[in-house]
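User: What would this chain look like folded?
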Amino acid sequence: MKASSISTIVLVLFALLYASPLRALERGMTLPKMTLSGKEGGRVDGTPFDSDTLKGKVTVLFYVDPDKKSLNEDFTEALKAKHFDRSRYRSVAIVNMAATWMPNFAIAAALKRKQEKYPDTIYVKDLHKKGVKVWRMKDDDANFVVLSKEGEVLYAKAGKIPENEYETIFSIIRTHMGASGQ
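Assistant: Here's the prediction, encoded as structure tokens.
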């Protein structure tokens, strides 16, 4: 093989590795620190969001393209029906607002209504795909992560959550909440 062919292959492999995320979220890893404020986004009420606030309780995190908001609606309803103890459990929905054609003002208005309807869930706007870059969430999709009280990934999935995984997820949440889990 010619040297030019080998160097072309090396360049192509390097480009593929460089273009893809270093690695996706994996069970056991700690979610990297991320803040969203000002022009990057933040909570629906306008205050900054800091991922350090995800520690202390078992956290169910949704990082979602608004176009995929209904993809896991069945799972979300099943999760709500469990009535987990909010003193040991929280839910956070971060919306990847740069992943859609929808105007930000329309998404922000919908999020404000959701925050009022579901005050126990923290709603956050990500205006520039920071979660894709920092947390390696899958872009243009619905991402779901369960985090331990220490911020360790217990379960991660991009796309539709299969119904046969619901009970596994609920068991993970219950186990890491401690005691009865409810």
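DSSP finds five helices and eight strands in the chain. If you want, I can go into more detail on any region.
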